[in-house]
């Protein structure tokens, strides 16, 4: 019993000594760690890093799927087609601006010939004696048989595109010509055989036979030029009188009905009979179906409104002047031409060099007056003894001086 008690005391004392030693050791560790905190931190961090495993390598990039590559190919094809179409449209616009339809059609012949190439029998057939097994033989046989066909196939698409362009351009030009060209190549019917010697007097409307004015209090009003009635009545005996205006027929027809109740004017031509060029409507006298050597075009803007300046007879523009006698002053020259029938009126007009024909005609007539010519028609007109010319001049002077006709309106 006493031995058991002794053994228990020895065990308890040994346990207490171990506890004390452990406390001392832990206090030493704490003191050493408090004296070098940074060193312990570094050591601990290094130990932590050394304990971790290295990072895994990055995963390989995923390969492009067939769907993505297909999208890229389609995008490339789309941009390529857009560039090709844009280039073709640009080139077509350049051809339309630079070349006429006939020029493009002429240049397209070589392309058509290339697209319609057919190999000849000698080129298409292979020599039976030559098997073409040798390299040189193949080199010679392939071009003879296939080169032309391949070139023809390559040229087919451009040739078809050019044909479509030419067809479209022809249609567009045909529709444009309906608005820019006169309605017919013969604007007037054929002249009667008995009147083949008669000259054609073409007259403009605005500022030549009449003047159109607009005011706020009364609107539009059209005034007749002084002497226009006498002018038409007298010259209708010698000429085929035609009115050729750039106004619409809805304006020309009613105005001519009021202007010429006696129908001295045989035909009326309006805007549909003009040629539209460079933003203006021109009178094309070559479409009148009359001999150009027998046409006179009288207008206040003759050289600016006609495509045949050699047939033009300029006259002073009418601006509502009360003392205007331009139409009456022109009668002697026109009657002289009609009675003497020169072979080509264009040469006669060219001699006046675009001067005032009425004044220049009187000046030339005075220079050539002589006792031998006192009974000629020219002298009768100049001195006013000719019945028709004198009557016309007397009526014209009454109209102008009286102030009645120049204030009348259509």
Tags for this model:
410 residues; alpha/beta; five-stranded parallel sheet; two-stranded antiparallel ribbon; 14 helices; mitochondrion inner membrane; mitochondrion; transmembrane helix; HAD_sf; translocation
Description of the structure:
It is a single chain. With 410 residues, the chain is of the alpha/beta class. The chain has helices at residues 2-35, 37-51, 66-98, 101-115, 121-124, 135-180, 228-235, 249-259, 302-305, 326-340, 345-350, 357-367, 377-383, 387-402, and strands at residues 199-203, 210-215, 219-224, 239-244, 267-269, 275-277, 280-282, 295-299, 312-314. The chain has a five-stranded parallel sheet. Helix 9 links the parallel strand 8 and strand 9. Helix 4 packs antiparallel against helix 6 (135-180). It is elongated, with a radius of gyration of 53 Å. The protein starts with a helix and ends in an 8-residue tail after the last helix. The model is unreliable at 22-49, 121-139 and 371-407 (pLDDT under 50). Residues 29-69 are annotated as: Disordered.
* Lateral arrangement of strands in the main beta sheet: 5-4-1-8-9
Beta-strand level of the residues, as a percent range? 5-15%
Named CATH topology of the largest domain? Rossmann fold
What's the overall geometry? elongated
Tally of extended strands?
A: 9
CATH C-level name of the largest domain: Alpha Beta
Number of helices: 14
Q: Report how far apart the termini are.
A: 165 Å
CATH-scheme architecture of the largest domain = 3-Layer(aba) Sandwich
> Can you say what the CATH homologous superfamily of the largest domain is?
HAD superfamily/HAD-like
Rg over C-alpha atoms, rounded to the nearest angstrom: 53 Å
Order of helices and strands: HHHHHHEEEHEHEEEEHEHHHHH
Q: Mean pLDDT, nearest integer?
A: 73
User: Major β-sheet, in short?
Assistant: 5 strands, parallel
Q: Compute the number of structural domains.
A: 2
